[in-house]
# Entry
Amino acid sequence: MPARLGRYAVRRRIGSGGFATVWLAYDEQLDSPVAIKVLAENWTEDSHVRQRFLEEGRFLRKVESPHVVTVYDAGSLEDDRPYLVMSYADQGTLADRLEDEGLTVPQACEVVRQIGAGLHALHQRGVLHRDIKPANVLFRTVDPEHEGTVVRAMVGDLGLGKALDVSSRLTMIAGTPSFVAPEQAQGEHLDARADQFSLAALTFLMLSGRPPYSHSSLSAAAAPPPPPPLSTTERPFPQAVDDVVRRGLAADRNDRYPDMPAYVAALAEALGESGMGSLPARWLPVDPELTQPGNKPSLVPSHDDLPAPVPPKRRPWWPAAVLALVLMVAGGLGGYAAWQHAHETRTFTDEDRTLRVTVPSSWARDVSLANWMPPAAPFSQSALSVGNKADWRASGEGVFVGLMPEKKLPTSLPQHPACSKPGKTERGTTGDPSVSATSTGCPGGGIIIEKAEQVSPTKLLWIQVRSDDEKTAEQVLDTVRTLGSLG
# Structure
């Protein structure tokens, strides 16, 4: 644990992800706890990721809303890694609340109202969030003048946020499959109604205790079926409420509400008195076990200053039992943790918007979406490459997808003699114009799949997948898609 980050005294680590680590620190000048988000070391040299990290701070600074996380400061460490100093969400995330206690209907309605207000503030400043999900809804305590201490909901983590005027030029498709709008999963031009879809999916989860979808990939989210009924035996709702949420989840964005305030107002009207309650009852209760910023440091914190570990809370019986049951019935994923784990993927589209593939997030360390020059080809062709390290083709995990100007399938594919069991070229089944070869026992362990597919009279699609296990390799191979006309 670093003693300081810039001028801020570090208290403890709040959490970490693939791109950044968040620390709880203390602003000695302003006498206040803050959260500091630091870019992960392994992404320091990646200009694209670095730009996205800095853009998050710029987007958040554009908005002055009590329901959007505030950025107070920014800077760089000695190793040139950037960091953002933000408001500290001392009451955790919506994911924490759903797992531990769940929400009452008035509380869920109030969270929708506040998050809707935060998203609308972003939209008014020309910013699209693109990744609304339980982990990105944060809570903090505030002290209004007349209501006493209450918990406020905020939109956080704009790591995928984009200015609305450039969203049509994105080359990377991203988002959480069970909450992402179909047009976003398809890589289309986006507007504020994409965030409305995500908020409607969040509404469904908060009200019913289960997500409307359990997509395992963004390709599945690109063409979702109609959502299941909102009501359950444990939580029945009027048809009007189901109609509002279902409209927010419409696959065609033109069928959704025109903007965020319209959706929030329609939901409140449909819920009526069941969604209102007195104002204090609509707020979430303060959890004293979460509000632990630590002792105010005098100079540099010592390990003795850190708060003692908090023992796990005894969870009420119904949220865990009901949530596990409905997830097994609705999604077949065996529980909330498995449902979350199924979303750890990323989808990439090449610069020409011709090829697409979905890979495990851990692979997305060495990414190239630029064209390549096939052997003996007069012109460059569409291609993309994603791997877990720069030399993944020798001993790592990754996938290459590229077009080749060729009118017929090759008679043989690379055999990879360094593998203990080199693959033999096999033709596809009847009606499948492809050849493939699977090699196992390869250097570094794992499997290599080579595949060539005739995707047009004059074009071959060449794919190589290298993985530590066959199931992952097959799953990645199944996500490869060609988009549009290939000539």
Q: What stands out?
A: The chain has three domains: 4-88, 94-285+318-341, 345-482. Residues 94-285+318-341 form a domain with the Transferase(Phosphotransferase); domain 1 fold (CATH 1.10.510.10). The radius of gyration is 25 Å. The longest helix spans residues 105-124.
